[in-house]
Amino acid sequence: MDISSIAKQVSTPAYCFDARLFERRAKEVREAFGPGIGLCFSIKANPFLLWALPDVFDRIEVCSPGELTLCERAGVDMQKVVYSGVNKGLEDIARAIRDGVGVLTAESPRHYRLICEEALRAGKTVPVLLRLTAGTQFGMDESDILSLIEHRDHHPEVTILGLHFFSGTQKKKMRVLEKETERLRTLCAKLKADYHFDMQWLEYGAGLAADYFCPDPDAEEAQRLSEAAEFLRALGAEYPLTVEMGRFFAAPCGFYFTKVVDTKLNQGLHYAIVDGGIHQLKYDGQLQGMQIPPITHLPLQTGEPATAESAPEADSVSADDPTLWTLCGSLCTTADVLARGVPLSSLAVGDTLVFHRVGAYSAFEGIALLLSRDLPEVWLIDLAGKLQKMRGRIDTDPLNGFQPT
User: Fold this and answer.
1) Strand pairing partners for 349?
2) Among 112, 203, 249, 280, which lies 20 to 30 A Cα-Cα from 292?
3) Is pLDDT at 91 greater than 90 in this prediction?
């Protein structure tokens, strides 16, 4: 199913996520890392993909009670769930234990004690990963981890399986991965030597960068994946390793459809107003529309792609090339600029613009309630290639209005 046929079925603005592209990326990662390393998808990147999750994933990272609800509704195998994230209270922990999640992460010594308390109440032995901090509010210091493992026999109701570590996303320099994997290797060796602790599970969020504005993002990411595999294979050869990522897995599989509703020429600049905007479309590193992501132009009359999926730099376009457009959304703010200097031929009201590589975070990080615009439709192409409507338009005005009681 191509973009043109999808555009004829959706009402803009709309997202469409292709589970086949998602699966293809996951298989590329599996091939690069080898069969001995587990793969975990962090669903905060795109929970809609839960409904067509390919078998290549061994684990699913969940970071909130709401995400756990999504897993319940999707019929996810709870043994695959890694329940992570801060602010998990007693009720949240008790629910996860009732659900039979595969493992809970402990974000702090207090959080560990809460898990122990609920495990005792439930009369179950609960598997746990201790989260190591990267110098942020997440996880705990190495000294706290050493203390918990040293006294692990005091809490037989909990089985500490290993460590969880994630320092951030959009990593392009392999030196970062080299330092992090070496830190994990050193700590694992210390736990073995000093505390006779055998690592049964090492969960590492590699955070490989997804590219949005380079001419050939697939090639850039393939090179990055190949370089990262060197460090991760080495670590996986020593310890049972699962690599968790969200953005890198999901980014290539998403499309955002938005329609041109007005065009104008203001002080020599061509502006196109679309029915979407920055409240719904967000790229990591997006700066006032100065970078041009891959865009396909579908003219109203033909519905066939009229431009290449990626655009040249604005300053390289000659007078003989297509008109340069500033693409703006529907919000009452000058910040609502999706892209500047986009070369498009014969752009007109009613045409559809399709922004590529929005499969991760874009649909979930925007300022969705600003101006009380409706939330857009969401469509999914499942692993069999069938287009399914996952969500219709949603009115946001009830969320913003004041109703006296």
Assistant:
1) none
2) 249
3) yes
